[in-house]
Amino acid sequence: MPDRRAERQAALRELLERQGADALLVTHLPNIRYLTGFTGSAALLLIRPDRAELISDFRYAVQAPQEVGASAVVEIDQTSVWDRLTRLLASAPTATLAVESHALTVRDAERVSAATRGRVMPTTDLVERLRASKAPEEIEAIRAAAALAEEALAEVLPGMAPGRTELEVGAALESALRRRGSEWHPFPTIVASGPRAALPHAHTGPRPIGRGEFLLLDFGAQVDGYCADLTRTVVVGAAADDRQRTVYELVRAAQRRALDGLRSGMTGREGDALARDVIAARGFGDAFGHSLGHGLGLEVHEAPRLSPTAEAPLPAGAVVTVEPGIYLPGWGGVRLEDDVHLTPAGAELLSNGRTELLELI
Ligand code: ZN
Ligand code: ZN
Question: Which ligand is closest in space to the CA of residue 218?
């Protein structure tokens, strides 16, 4: 796998120069991972024009140098990473230190101000902007995560029967994901049955699945740090009734329209509208209350967004979810979610896109 850490840091330094900052304090851990390879839970990363310094603590004294290699100088502090930052800034001051205002707590912002005599410049999403366009090996990791998630689902589908609880199905699915190599569950698995499928972010619970009900499964997998995010909705124990079929096929048509029409260069709003217009034209616009999709990468929700308020063009190389849904309170809901890689020519599926209605009889 190519080592892109130096080129990523170089691209970041260019962005910093354009902002008029001579250093960036990176505090968002996925950004630190992207720039250095460090996967631990405690670090500060100082990106300067001529070097990068990663500060961590005793727990990572062995791991940090191994993961970071030559991409940064590693400083391990036994007491406080913030004290060490203060000392580093005292020995080599910065005139303008940029910070990640979207990731910094108020308390840590006060610590930064106390640590530097120079100016502090709030910035947002500098590293996230770089992360939005994926390199080929990042796209392959997401493709592998999606394949793993699909295999796990195929393994547990036969066990979904009336009377099984959501938690039982969720446990089987999470076990299959882990056994097949998912590093972690990037978000809490959603298994929502019957009327609970109308809750877009339902908590998986003890409810037994009823015969003929929708079962909505939203689940992820992680490979080499990269996340896949899939949703399938199935009917359990009986054939779908007319209303279930109508709503399901409408969501499916909306997703199909978006998969066919999406490409980089259009805005996130235009991408969102591809699916939203199909649903709204049939009178279900109010029942699709969330955005069409989000970026995927080291985080399960990252840039760019496909939403009615996203005016930025979608960058080439972005990986996004396409997940229209219709939710009817008291009745149930349908969501279908696949993952795609955006190019100027269109959207390449990274998941299998197999959304024909499954009736588990
Ligand atoms: Zn999802
Ligand atoms: Zn999603």
Answer: 1
